[in-house]
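Here is one chain, start to finish.
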Amino acid sequence: LESRVTPDNLNVAIVVSTFNGERYLAAQLDSLLRQSHSNIEILIRDDGSSDRTREMLSEYARRHDSVNVIFEDNIGVVRSFFRLLALVPAAADYVAFCDQDDVWCEDKIERALDQLREVEPHCPAMYCGALEIVDENLQHIRVESRSKRRPSLENALVQNIATGCTTVVNRAAVRLTLENKVEASEILMHDWWLYQVVSAFGSVIYDDTPRIKYRQHGANVIGSSSGFKLWAERLKRQLGSNRGAIRRQAKELARAYGADMSERNAQMVSDFLRGTGSVEIRTRVAYAIR
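Its structure:
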């Protein structure tokens, strides 16, 4: 009889990169283990922690068959997540990205799969979504949604709406991400890079309903911004000294994937590089507004 893929037997690998995360790690891992979708494997790479993180991870791996841990030297968060992607088991149908200090709602994976299953398996697909911003004690602050601009390569070149801890990708997106060797030093963050690559070749789904408690504290690698701070950061990216970082990321996208893009997308990246690279600030301002 022909086998049928049902929601229950879809295999999901959750990848976690840890670094000195002892304070909030247990709450995060416990929320992963409570997921309503039970067919999961939790793959954790510790990036050279010096606190009790490694001891805690060893205990979770000892107690739970679904938790697998590797201990390696510090290489930074971007390279760590690329390393994790390369280690994802071949049996995984989907890969979910996870930070070390948040808390997931029990149906987070289930909700993502319900939407991703609408995309044909051969098409690279990404699910991402809104965040419930909470304080150190998980008390509600606000809901942050970035869906004002529809997911697209146009948006991905200038803004990252795909917060990594909300992101789930299918196997086709993993293959696409790993098929070309890229220089990690040219990439701002792994989630932004995934958003650019998948939006250039596939489908990005944005969910306005938050299924994650995004903890804000002093040790966040990337925190949440809103209001004036958000706009100040956007202008700094487009006009200030930091514009070089997003240009380098776009140049790496063009180098690694430009030959395989549609003519329209390749031209868009080229226009972006030309507009943001102008020595005249008036040209950069005009491009930033557009």
